[in-house]
Amino acid sequence: MGKVLLDMAMSLDGYLARPHDEDGGLHNWYFSPAPKSAAVIEELINTSGVIVMGRRAYDIGDRYDGYVDNPYKVPHFVLTHNVPEKPAKGETSFTFVTEGIESILKQAKAAAGDKDVVIGGGADIAQQCLKAGLIDEIQIHLVPVLLCEGLRLFEHIGTESIELEQTRVIESTGVTHLKFRVVK
């Protein structure tokens, strides 16, 4: 069975997006990757069995037709209170789950088989998973920019320390890829 991997691009000061969901340049490295970043992206594509995201991340991707040329040809599970009337454009398969974080991860793990379940969109769903102790690994694509305000990744995760073991650091153009194992 694969692991549950939290995979996010983040500014040096801990933000995933600017206040109105603007990217702030956090994903520039992804769309024209240097060779080291291309290898990280290829690894992620090859090891992902399912992508899990929150409704806000889904809506942002839909707004920009982000699922039309989606390189992740795996099922996508979306945690939401309200299922959209029509799915996003593109061939990406979406399953909308309304029963909570444990339910979505149970369904995602079953669909992923021996590949990874990747939490790939949304601070809220990432925070819920971290707080509940459901993450096995964290991969942060640390971008050298200070956004100074916006949506933080590591807020609202409780007051208990979460011990991490660094397993990899890859420096690339415009980003440093950090990987950690969550010590349980």
Q: SSE string, helix = H, strand = E?
A: EEHHEHEEHEHEEEE
Beta-strand percent range: 25-35%
**Poorly predicted segments:** none
**How many helix segments?**
5
At CATH level 2, the architecture is: 3-Layer(aba) Sandwich
Give the domain tally. 1
Shape: globular
By CATH, the topology is Dihydrofolate Reductase, subunit A
Instruction: Please write the CATH class name.
Output: Alpha Beta
Spatial strand arrangement across the major sheet: 5-4-3-6-1-7-10-9
Largest sheet geometry = 8 strands, mixed
Q: CATH superfamily, called what?
A: Dihydrofolate Reductase, subunit A
How many angstroms does the end-to-end distance come to? 17 Å
Structural class: alpha/beta
Describe the structure.
The chain is an alpha/beta fold and about 180 residues long. The protein has a single domain (about 5-55, about 100-180), classed as Dihydrofolate Reductase, subunit A (3-Layer(aba) Sandwich). The protein has helices at about 30, 35-45, 55-65, 100-110, 125-130; strands at about 5-10, 15, 50-55, 75-80, 95, 115-120, 135-145, 150, 165-170, 175-180. The strands form two sheets. The protein has an eight-stranded mixed β-sheet with strand order 5-4-3-6-1-7-10-9, sandwiched between helices. Strands 2-8 form a two-stranded antiparallel sheet. Strand 3 (about 50-55), helix 3 (about 55-65) and strand 4 form a beta-alpha-beta unit. It is globular, with a radius of gyration of 15 Å.
What is the gist of this entry?
With 184 residues, the protein is of the alpha/beta class. It has helices at 28-31, 35-47, 55-63, 101-112, 123-131, and strands spanning 4-11, 15-17, 48-54, 76-79, 94-97, 116-121, 137-143, 151-152, 164-172, 175-182. The chain has one domain: Dihydrofolate Reductase, subunit A.
